[in-house]
Amino acid sequence: MPELPEVETIRRFLSRKILNKKISAIIVNDSRVIKEPALRQFKKSLKGARIQNILRRAKVLVFELDSGMYLVMHLRIAGWLLYGKKEKKARVSFKFSDNFYLNYMDQRVLGEMRLRQDYRDLSFIKKLAPEPFAMDAQQFKDALAGKKTTIKNLLMNQEVISGIGNIYAQEALFLSKIKPQRLAGSLSLAETRLLHKNLISVLKEAIRHKGSSVDTYRDPQGNKGTMAKHLRVYDRKGEPCYVCKEPIVKISLAGRGTCFCPQCQK
DNA sequence: AATGGGACCTGCGCGC
DNA sequence: TGCGCGCAGGTCCCAT
Q1: Separation of CA A144 and C1' B2 in angstroms?
Q2: Angle, to 10 degrees, between the axis of helix A189-208 and the axis of helix A166-175?
Q3: Is the overall model pTM greater than 0.90, yes or no?
């Protein structure tokens, strides 16, 4: 899915476009993405509501409604939002009273949305660790201390540090010259500090470039984010490392493809 | 307690 | 051309 930078790109775009618009209709083409409440109640509660604010918590989008309720959206791997006209392939479309539509697109139907009185009490929200921006180097070091898993798996564990997924974990480790399969607890203080700094810088860089469109992800105008052009190791198996020319190697960690430079990363 | 594997889904590219 | 397989930005559940 969309990792933190892609979700933040969506949040910023929609915050300029849909605030205070009235939802006049909800078109559900695939009810699998709506997890609560039951479909009839979901539509009934949303109709006539206005979106007052759009929040983001790690990779989760939260639409705050004037009714006091929250529409909580998790895009998972392939979800994205397309603003404009009605889309045939949308799993769900929200129609506004000015006849514009917000379409929920999701090739793999793994994403989900929930309409609730609150979002903070959702168990997966409660368990979320702070984002890298909200952690200092010491807190990051404490989060790694004594962990037996690999550093790459740990970066993707949302209960340890949130917002990072498979692309930016690989990128930050490359920038920090740390092999992804190193055990988290084995990092030196200097490596820990460097990794923390690089996590923040790569996420900010990706936000500036409006995210990575390596597959289905598009921004709400349907445009690709340009960060994919700036990725240093992700999906570069066999290609020369930009620093030392050594071919990039791909391994599997916790079932996820993981690229790194066998020479630069120690 | 923490870790790894499979499940949830669809669609694409590749090799045979 | 057609088919089967592996793989894809995430997370949850379960066995160990």
Answers
A1: 14
A2: 130
A3: yes
Name residue A31's beta-bridge partners: none
Q: Does the C-beta of A149 come within 7 A of strand B?
A: yes
CA distance A246 to A201: 24
Q: Is the per-residue pLDDT at A55 higher than 90?
A: yes
Measured CA to CA, the distance from residue A247 to residue A228 in angstroms comes to: 19
- Give all strands (DSSP E) within A29-140, no chain letters: 34-36, 51-57, 60-65, 70-74, 79-84, 92-96, 101-106, 112-116
A166 contact to strand C (CB, 7 A limit)? yes
Q: Among all strands, which nt has the closest C1' to A214 (CA)?
A: C9
Query: A104 is written with which tokens?
Result: 């929920």
Scanning every strand, the nucleotide with its C1' closest to A159's CA turns out to be C11
Choice among A67-71, A141-145, A204-208, A230-234 with the minimum mean pLDDT: A141-145
